[in-house]
């Protein structure tokens, strides 16, 4: 009995406690609710207005409210148009867009575009014959190089990716310097330390190429920012492929350049492929130009096989980039006619017919040649004579480069540290001991003795 009564008391106590705690929780919740209601009500009391007149106040967006659920289409305008000046037969479409370049300038464009072609052919064959280790051709993209390079000032800084040899050629890099770099001989400005096609020239304001994709993009933004702070009449141009535009560095670079208001031209060579990856696997939006508005950049898409269109777009972008301190994005549509590099065989992922179309029907060199011929500036005889002369010049330079000594092996150890570290000194000594010991395997007479 006593046990039952104790149990019943405990039960009563437990129920009382449970009830009390529920009451406390309810009270707390109602206080919270009251507080919240009070805050909401107080806002309403402070700012009574008509909801149809409401404007978004969010920092970072300038837009209207809408009351219909609608997702924005990725291609807000149906395909960004492609600006061109000439048609495929070299006729000027709209006379107001004719850059009216002199005969001398146009012939220089043509000479550079075709010389690049000839140099590519000989260096490509050199690699196939085992004379150099690697090469990348520029076939089909000559118009993007020469048109943009011609629109710049010599003191503008150039950051390239690797397929812009024509830009460097236009700025005055000699055939000897190209060959010296690819042959890594004693005349190479890079002292034989880089893979072929990794050119650089301090005198020509062309920053040395580096292999990891897109690293040049944030570097170019930094250089443009420094130039802006110096307040001098100078711009930076940064070349990259549509594949490199997928790298994180590209996005960081675009945003920094827009927010820091840098005098910079982003020049994307959209050549259809990133090695074997075609553009339809590279992005889902409307190419690279479509990204410009997202970053608040002025953007244009041009026909990269029309050297005048590239020239006009780059010239105007350069003028405004410097005058207004802001970046511009140019997407030059073109086609990579050659393999990606000598390490690639593009027949594994694209048809011969596709390549032939661009080679035969829509080529930047033939388009310019049509233009020159229609003005009476260029004949079949001129073409034959120039092809013969340019091939001969390239062959002479190539033979000279091949015979030249290799750089002094000492240069392997210099230029990184002002003073050589103990570890490096040890490595250097051990290398030279080894070479001395097995000198029959090391043709040291082929190496330069001077270290400069
Ligand atoms: C960070 C990095 N990833 C991958 C590579 C290997 N790679 C070298 S070139 C290349 C394709 C680049 O294509 P694109 O930017 O379109 O330039 P294109 O070769 O067409 O001129 C790739 C993936 C690399 N060099 N660096
Ligand atoms: Mg590409």
Q: Termini, distance in Å?
A: 110 Å
Which fold name is given in CATH as the topology of the largest domain? Rossmann fold
* Cα-based radius of gyration, to the nearest Å: 32 Å
What summary fits the major beta sheet? 6 strands, parallel
Full CATH superfamily name of the largest domain = Thiamin diphosphate (ThDP)-binding fold, Pyr/PP domains
Strand order of the largest sheet: 2-1-3-4-8-7
Molecular shape: globular
| Secondary-structure element pattern, one letter each | HHHEHHEHEHEEEHHEHEHHHH
Please count the helical segments. Answer: 14
Bound molecules: thiamine diphosphate, magnesium ion
| CATH class descriptor of the largest domain | Alpha Beta
Architecture per CATH nomenclature, i.e. the level-2 architecture of the largest domain: 3-Layer(aba) Sandwich
Topology summary:
Layout (H helix, E strand, L loop, with lengths): L1 H45 L56 H26 L13 H9 L6 E3 L5 H7 L3 H9 L22 E2 L8 H15 L5 E6 L6 H12 L4 E7 L2 E2 L2 E2 H4 L8 H5 L2 E6 L3 H18 L3 E6 L18 H10 L2 H11 L5 H24 L18 H16 L15
Helix pairs in contact: 2-3, 2-4, 2-12, 2-13, 3-4, 3-10, 5-13, 6-7
Bound molecules: thiamine diphosphate (TPP) and magnesium ion.
Structure notes:
Helices cover 47% and strands 8% of the residues. It is α/β, with parallel strands linked by helices and 452 residues long. The protein contains 14 helices and eight strands. Strand 5 (273-274) and strand 6 form a beta hairpin. The longest helix is centred in the first third of the chain and has 45 residues, at 2-46. The protein has helices at residues 2-46, 103-128, 142-150, 165-171, 175-183, 216-230, 248-259, 279-282, 291-295, 307-324, 352-361, 364-374, 380-403, 422-437; strands at residues 157-159, 206-207, 236-241, 264-270, 273-274, 277-278, 298-303, 328-333. The protein folds into two domains: 95-403, Thiamin diphosphate (ThDP)-binding fold, Pyr/PP domains (Rossmann fold); 409-446, no CATH class. The N and C termini lie far apart (110 Å). The strands form two sheets. Strands 2-1-3-4-8-7 form a six-stranded parallel β-sheet, with helices on both faces. The protein binds thiamine diphosphate and magnesium ion (MG). Residues 241-243, 271, 273-274 line the site of magnesium ion.
